[in-house]
Amino acid sequence: MSIDLAAIGGSGLYQFPGLEHPERHSVETPFGPASGDIVCGDFHGRRIAFLARHGESHTLPPHRVNYRANLWALHHLGARRVIGVNAVGGIRDDMGPRVMVVPDQIVDYTHGRFTSFCDVEGAEVKHIDFSEPYTASLRAALLAAATRAGTPAIDGGCYGATQGPRLETRAEIIRMRRDGCDLVGMTGMPEAVLARELDIEYACLALVANFAAGCGDEEEISIEEIFAHLAAATASVPPILAELVS
Ligand code: HPA
C-alpha cells in the first residue's frame, strides 16, 4: 500500500478528522502491539495514515507507549514520511500556550525505553548518524505548510524529552534551559530515533500547551488549562497537513 504521509497524534489528537474511506489496520509487530489500530484514509486526494500515540482513549502514558511497534507498524503499511504531533511545555519566552514549533534538535532525558530496533538478539547493530534528528526537507515542508494554512510555526528549537508522566520540577526546567532546551515534552524520544533507524522521514509539530514549570506566571500548572490550550492548537493540525500533502 502506498501512503503519502502518516501522522502520530499526541495528547488531544486521538482521531484524524476529514479522513475519507477510512480503513482500520491492526498490525502485528515483532515488538508487540502498537498503540492501537492505524487508520488509513483519503485526505485531499492523498493517502494518509493516522495513529493515536496514547491510544484512542488516552490509556497509554508516555513511558508505556510501544514506540517500536508504532514505527514498525507504520513502516510495514508503507509510511515513509511521518509527522509526530506532540504536546509540549514552553521554556523559551516566545513559546507560550498555543504556539506551534517545528523543533530542530533534541536532548533525551528519558530512561528505560527501548530506543533501538537492534535491541533484540541477533539483530545487526547499527550506529546511525543523529546529528540532525529531524528530516530537514520535511521540516521545511511542514513550516511552509503551516504558513500557507495561516497558522505559522516557529522554525527551530530544542526539544527536551522527559520521562513523565509527571510534569517537571522548576529546578529540572532550569537545568533544561541551561542545557539549551526550548521545549519540554514526554514523547519525542525514542520516536524520532526509531524513525531514523527505519529510514522514515520524520518531523515534529510541537503544540505548546503550557509554560513549563517556573516559566510562566502560574504557581501551578493546571491540567484543565493544558487540555484547553491543546484543543485550540490541535484544530490547526488537519489544515496544516492538508497543505503539506497538497
Ligand atoms: N512538560 C512535559 N510535557 C508536557 C508539558 C510539560 O510542561 N506540557 C505538555 N506536555
Automatic annotation (TrEMBL):
GO terms for cellular component: cytosol. Its EC number is 2.4.2.44. Gene3D superfamilies: Nucleoside phosphorylase domain. The record marks E168, I223 as: Important for substrate specificity. GO terms for molecular function: S-methyl-5-thioadenosine phosphorylase activity. Residues 6-235 form the Nucleoside phosphorylase domain. GO terms for biological process: L-methionine salvage from methylthioadenosine; purine ribonucleoside salvage. PROSITE patterns: PNP_MTAP_2 (PS01240). InterPro entries: MTAP (IPR010044), Nucleoside_phosphorylase_d (IPR000845), Nucleoside_phosphorylase_sf (IPR035994), Purine_phosphorylase-2_CS (IPR018099). Keywords: Glycosyltransferase, Purine salvage, Transferase. The keyword Amino-acid biosynthesis does not apply. NCBIfam families: PRK09136.1. Although this enzyme belongs to the family of MTA phosphorylases based on sequence homology, it has been shown that conserved amino acid substitutions in the substrate binding pocket convert the substrate specificity of this enzyme from 6-aminopurines to 6-oxopurines. Catalyzes the reversible phosphorylation of S-methyl-5'-thioinosine (MTI) to hypoxanthine and 5-methylthioribose-1-phosphate. Involved in the breakdown of S-methyl-5'-thioadenosine (MTA), a major by-product of polyamine biosynthesis. Catabolism of (MTA) occurs via deamination to MTI and phosphorolysis to hypoxanthine. Belongs to the PNP/MTAP phosphorylase family. MTAP subfamily. This is Probable S-methyl-5'-thioinosine phosphorylase. It comes from Luteibacter rhizovicinus.
